[in-house]
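Action item from last meeting closed. Structure (296 res):
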């Protein structure tokens, strides 16, 4: 609510988990930050399930996410949004980017890229080591011919894209004004080999479609925002304000992640812990670092 007690419908925030594993404490913290950001400003809080990767997304993880959020006492507005309902809009945007000549086919494999890394390590971009650009200048006729038989992804030609859009910036309420530097991005994948669309394009389109005014998410996605800003400029989409929050760290200073054995919220829930109490602890601590997983 605003100070006048009115809902401020102009503010729309979302939590956008991927249902490819169980949520852990880091997610609870992220969900709470986004939720409270919206509620404290009297805005709307949406829940979007980012299930474009059909090989890794599972309905049981969707169920667990909904149960975890309810357990935490975090409520959302309207129906749950599923990215898997929106493949047509992603495909249309991919076609638009192809029409603008911003994408190129990439035939590189994990092995060939690892070999390129061994020859000389590339600096890190939003998606790991920056792509060396091996397929960027393939002869189009040859690339089309190879595409008949060889699996391939589509990458964004970032230099070409920025040459089209001109200099770009965006604003983060915590980190301040940001200017895009093409050399830090690399040609990220827009259409992976086995999935119709990559995270960067889907999230950019959906934040616009859902009317998100403030993208509140963890610092792990900070570097990706340059890509999203670039896609917004190419596709004529609005640019939200951003707020990248610090990540919850364990006692050794490492980020909590699904791949490590972080306590899942489902386990804490089943053990009878209070989700509301957990959120209250987060709220009481200012950007907690070094939480004790065993005590949690
Ligand atoms: N789906 C992404 C994830 O679970 C988050 C997307 C976002 O907040 O932009 O990491």
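Sequence:
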């Amino acid at each position: 609510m605003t100070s006048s007690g009115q809902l401020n419908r102009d503010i729309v925030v979302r939590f956008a988990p991927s249902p490819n594993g169980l949520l852990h404490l880091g997610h609870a913290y992220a969900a709470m930050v986004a939720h409270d950001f919206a509620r404290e400003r009297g805005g709307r809080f949406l829940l979007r399930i980012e299930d474009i990767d059909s090989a890794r997304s599972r309905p049981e993880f969707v169920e667990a996410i909904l149960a975890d959020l309810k357990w935490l006492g975090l409520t959302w507005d309207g129906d749950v949004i599923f990215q898997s309902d929106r493949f047509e809009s992603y495909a249309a945007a991919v076609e638009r980017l192809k029409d603008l000549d911003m994408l190129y086919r990439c035939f590189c494999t994990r092995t060939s890229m690892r070999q390129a890394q061994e020859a000389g390590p590339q600096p890190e971009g939003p998606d790991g080591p920056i792509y060396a650009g091996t397929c960027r200048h393939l002869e189009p006729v040859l690339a089309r011919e190879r595409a008949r038989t060889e699996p391939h992804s589509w990458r964004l030609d970032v230099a070409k894209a920025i040459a089209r859009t001109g200099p770009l910036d965006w604003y983060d309420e915590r980190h301040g004004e940001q200017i895009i530097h093409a050399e830090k991005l690399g040609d990220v994948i827009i259409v992976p080999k086995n999935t119709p669309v990559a995270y960067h394009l889907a999230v950019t389109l959906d934040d616009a479609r859902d009317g998100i005014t403030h993208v509140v998410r963890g610092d792990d996605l900070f570097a990706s925002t340059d890509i999203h800003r670039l896609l917004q400029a190419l596709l004529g989409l609005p640019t939200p304000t951003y707020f990248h929050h610090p990540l919850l760290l364990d006692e050794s200073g490492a980020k909590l992640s699904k791949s490590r054995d972080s306590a899942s919220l489902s386990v804490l829930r089943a053990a009878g812990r209070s989700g509301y109490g957990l959120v209250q602890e987060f709220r009481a601590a200012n950007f907690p670092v070094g939480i004790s997983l065993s005590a949690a």
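Note appended to the action item: The two ends are 31 Å apart (CA to CA).
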